[in-house]
Amino acid sequence: MKLRAEYASPHFVLPALVIMAMLIAALLAACSAGVSSGGGYYYYE
Q1: d(CA 20, CA 26)
Q2: Is the Cβ–Cβ distance between 6 and 12 less than 8 Å?
Q3: Which 8-state DSSP code applies to residue 1?
């Protein structure tokens, strides 16, 4: 019961959500940058 309460507390949930959001944003940025700057030009050239 105590472990469940700790995992459900905002102190553990919020940092995890922030980290996940940052990872997703980094992946999206890397994918968009790779497609727009790297992939597209190489394929067309």
Answers
A1: 10
A2: yes
A3: -
